[in-house]
Amino acid sequence: MLFEVPLPPFPPFLKVDAGDLPALLTALLYGPGAGIGIEGIKNVLHYLIRGGEAGLPIGQAANFLAGSVYVSVAAWAYGRRSDAAGLAVGLALGSLLTAVAMAAANYFFLFPLYIAVLHYPIAREDILPLILTAIFPFNLVKGGLIGIVAFALYSRLHGWIRERRATEVSAERR
Question: Residue 120: which pLDDT band, with cuts at 50, 70 and 90?
Fold first, then answer.
């Protein structure tokens, strides 16, 4: 999250970063809980280094939710079928469910919080159109971009990942 890049067609507060990749790789190796833990560490560090809007970690909480949904769904699907197809399904499903989760979170919690606490200049009736035209598609695109990079990494590391997972499983059975 220290190297965030806005995507041109979307509002500038929506940014893509590579911070979900370490959490995703961790989740593929050690399960969804480990990936969620990395998401937590990443966002706490980001808050400590950069701070938050008006001193509140609202953006970090949103990023934690989005990243946690993405990595846990991808790891769950990969755990059910530990091959490239399982990963592809997991990444696609993770992108879709992240977009849905963030649309709901923004509608019910995040935008109302920004309006109440930070006096964000948006009318309540403009929130749903913004979610449908920016938040939802942004999260699909972000998930797709991260998925492409993750899949490329997987194709290079899949032997190592399988070996590590097999070692972990055999160690747990002892």
Answer: confident
pLDDT of residue 34: 97
- Return d(Cα 43, Cα 36) in angstroms, integer: 11
Question: Mind giving me the DSSP string for 24-66?
Answer: HHHHHHH-HHHHHHHHHHHHHHHHHHH--BTTB-HHHHHHHHH
Topology annotation, domain 18-173: Arp2/3 complex 21 kDa subunit ARPC3 (1.10.1760)
- The dihedrals phi and psi of 34, each to the nearest 5 degrees, come to -65, -40
- Per domain, the residue ranges of the chain are 18-173
Closest CA to 111 of 137, 139, 130: 130
Question: Residue written as tokens 């849905």?
Answer: 100
Beta strand ranges found along 62-148 (DSSP E): none
> What's the pLDDT band for 13 if we cut at 50, 70, 90?
confident
CB neighbours of 139 closer than 8 A, spacing ≥ 6?
66, 95, 98, 99, 102, 103
